[in-house]
């Protein structure tokens, strides 16, 4: 299962991609264009890499590989080294032909340097790729409405988790509207229970609140404008309203008093939630596997989940999702065997690939996955996630992954200043508008 360590790594580590200006249009060492020969695929080397290793073996033995006159060699790069090694390799004669990424801002520099194959028309003209993936996930990894990646790992939507036992004891129902959430907040505080766990020391858990509120208040178009490079989008009234709403929550004690010293990465926030000190937790879908590993009884008996509520009068659909849609394969524009690269990408839409993801505890982003989820560790939770993403009109990529890496760290700094009271909603908006 992709874990929160991946999530944190992205928030703090993606800035190693910043030196985009130094990227050149150097390509694969085996030449450019043409057909024939082995191609190299860089992948993030974690526990989930076994799914990609099986895919490579399957492809190399296939008729598709024979037809393309090429095979794939998988190069597993340790996670902490991945962004830096990829950036260095892409500026050298030994660049990978295919490489793992997070979509959005993580590939923007390569796109601007002319190093990526635009896959938009390929996807549209190939039924396997066009119909093989959930549309919201394909779109989430795009830049400027153009596709540069094919989904290749599990989905990680952000979900509102709740303690079912606490909710039952206090006669509460999961909120579907913002007013209901505020009502629950008041009742829990009266019972001396912190409404929401929050790992504020890591900052990125704070980001999730703003992501959902901007979507629910202004719709996905607000952040989409920012993602595509227009920093004036930060001045949209929905951003200010979201910041004001967050401040109201903090002032109302929704996260307790010490949230800025609690981390998610060391297990602090999950423990606060599992031990009943907080009744809810807004977190990526990996929260389930985190709780199963650390507090199995809580995960099996008490852990509930629901969608982030609707904001009355807001433009955003309650079915919209934010988070990490998945990871993507992108193709180097200078690949030595484009036919083999594209044939390999098609395997990601196969049922065999989806089955391997499910066996690994992941929820595939393929359109054929629903029938496979009974084999997952928790079919109920798996089906909830899948249907959530399948039905989502829009899936907003986590802001710190979607924006240009140069903007990611200063954006997180401003978010933290808002949460800890060192900035106001108006100053927060003004600071973000200055990001380029």
Automatic annotation (TrEMBL):
User: Which keywords annotate this record?
Assistant: Signal
Q: Carries keyword Signal? A: yes
One Pfam short name: SBP_bac_1
Q: Which domain of life is it from?
A: Bacteria
In the record, which residues are listed under signal peptide? 1-20
Q: Quote the InterPro entries the UniProt record gives.
A: Bact_solute-bd_prot1, SBP
Keyword match Signal:
yes
Which SUPFAM superfamilies does this chain map to? Periplasmic binding protein-like II (SSF53850)
Name recorded for this polypeptide: ABC transporter substrate-binding protein
């Amino acid at each position: 299962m992709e874990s929160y360590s991946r999530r944190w790594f992205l928030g703090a580590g993606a800035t190693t991609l910043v030196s985009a200006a130094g990227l050149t249009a150097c390509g694969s060492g085996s030449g450019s264009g043409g057909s024939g020969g082995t191609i190299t695929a860089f992948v993030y080397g974690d526990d989930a890499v076994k799914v990609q290793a099986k895919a490579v073996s399957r492809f190399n033995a296939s008729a598709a590989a024979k037809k393309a006159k090429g095979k794939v060699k998988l190069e597993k790069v340790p996670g902490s080294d991945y962004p830096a090694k990829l950036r260095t390799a892409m500026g050298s004669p030994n660049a990978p032909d295919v490489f793992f990424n997070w979509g959005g801002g993580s590939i923007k520099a390569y796109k601007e340097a002319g190093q990526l194959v635009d896959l938009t028309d390929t996807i549209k003209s190939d039924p396997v790729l066009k119909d093989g993936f959930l549309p919201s996930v394909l779109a989430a990894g795009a830049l400027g409405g153009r596709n540069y990646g094919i989904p290749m790992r599990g989905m990680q939507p952000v979900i509102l988790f709740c303690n079912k036992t606490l909710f039952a004891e206090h006669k509460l129902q999961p909120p579907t509207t913002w007013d209901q959430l505020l009502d629950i907040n008041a009742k829990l505080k009266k019972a001396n229970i912190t409404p929401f766990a929050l790992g504020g020391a890591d900052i990125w858990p704070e980001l999730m609140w703003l992501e959902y509120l901007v979507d629910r208040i202004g719709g996905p178009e607000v952040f989409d404008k920012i993602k595509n490079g227009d920093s004036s989008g930060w001045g949209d009234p929905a951003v200010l309203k979201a910041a004001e709403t967050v401040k109201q929550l903090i002032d109302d004690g929704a996260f307790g008093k010490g949230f800025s010293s609690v981390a998610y990465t060391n297990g602090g926030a999950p423990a606060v939630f599992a031990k009943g000190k907080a009744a809810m937790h807004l977190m990526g879908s990996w929260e389930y596997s985190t709780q199963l590993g650390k507090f199995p009884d809580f995960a099996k008996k008490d852990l509930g989940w629901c969608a982030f509520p609707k904001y009355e009068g807001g433009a955003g659909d309650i079915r919209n999702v934010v988070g990490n849609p998945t990871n993507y394969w992108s193709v180097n524009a200078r690949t030595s065997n484009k036919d083999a690269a594209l044939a390999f990408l098609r395997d990601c839409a196969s049922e065999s690939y989806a089955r391997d993801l499910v066996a690994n505890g992941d929820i595939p982003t393929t359109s054929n996955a629903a029938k496979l989820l009974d084999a997952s560790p928790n079919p109920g939770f798996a089906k909830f996630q899948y249907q959530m993403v399948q039905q989502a009109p829009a899936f907003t990529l986590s802001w710190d992954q979607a924006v240009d890496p140069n903007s990611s760290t200063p954006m997180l700094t401003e978010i933290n200043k808002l949460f800890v009271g060192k900035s106001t909603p108006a100053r927060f908006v003004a600071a973000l508008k200055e990001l380029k």
